[in-house]
Amino acid sequence: MQASTLRCLLEPWCRELGFIICYGAIVLKLYRHLVEFRTRKAHRWVVRDLDLLRYLCAMIVAVLCYLAAFTATSLDFLQYSELVWQMDQPQSMDAKQVASNMCRPLRWDYVTEAGELLILGFGLQLAIASRNANTQFRERQFLVASILIEFLVSSTFYILRFWYLEEFNPSTLFLALFVRSQLTNTVTLGLIFLPKLWYQHKQLMCHSLGALKNQVNF
Questions:
Q1: CB 56 within 8 A of CB 177
Q2: What are 40-58's pLDDT values in tens digits?
């Protein structure tokens, strides 16, 4: 897809809303594990799903306000320049098409990336604090692994892009973004859903074997 002004305005919305919904939910689940693990009162304090949903909605509203400010600033920026990243003069028409495939890097990107890493770092802090908590089918370990992978891969990508941005061509950056997406988003979905599916399958198998054993004994 060729870069355009509309795409460059919508891309941060898709990225950041997806990020806060996915990893915000993971951080909140780690928070619930920590609260339940540290409760030592006679009446155990349980964080309800409705409470987590309210916290997540508050995080989404905050991100929406941030993205609205980003979009307004970008619209002002359009009066003097453009959002599509045009590199050096291409040598061929094919190179020209490739050169217009990326959006222009902005200072807002650094603020956004720092915010993402702070949220992930907070999640890792919660994971360390609740390291002794026991959860069903080891859910906490898989949640921690998903946050840790996102933190390591994204921070490495941001550092390399900051230092070597001018040396990369748009095709290389596009490939790096694709690899990063697979190493973070795809792996995170697998870590969240596959253990639950395997646990349910294992429970079903145990139930079936138990019923078969009862029939044999009968």
A1: no
A2: 555 566 778 889 999 999 9
SS (H, E, C) 10-78: HHHHHHHHHHHHHHHHHHHHHHHHHHHHHCCCCCCCCCCHHHHHHHHHHHHHHHHHHHHHHHHHHHHHC
pLDDT of residue 113: 94
User: The tokens of 101 are what?
Assistant: 């495939």
Query: Long-range contacts: 105-114, Cβ < 8 Å, 24+?
Result: 105/165, 106/74, 106/77, 108/12, 108/70, 108/73, 108/74, 110/162, 112/12, 112/16, 112/66, 112/70, 113/154, 113/158
Pair 39, 45: CB distance under 8 Å? yes
Task: Give the mean model confidence (pLDDT) for residues 116-126.
Answer: 95
What is the DSSP secondary structure assignment for residue 167, as one 8-state letter? G
- Quick: pLDDT tens for 81-94: 667 766 554 454 45
Closest to 181 (Cα-Cα) out of 8, 22, 3: 22
**Could you tell me the pTM of the whole model?**
0.81
Distance between CA 126 and CA 30 in Å, rounded?
6
pLDDT at site 17: 96
- C-alpha dist (Å) from residue 134 to 9, 100, 112, 113, 157: 43, 50, 34, 32, 33
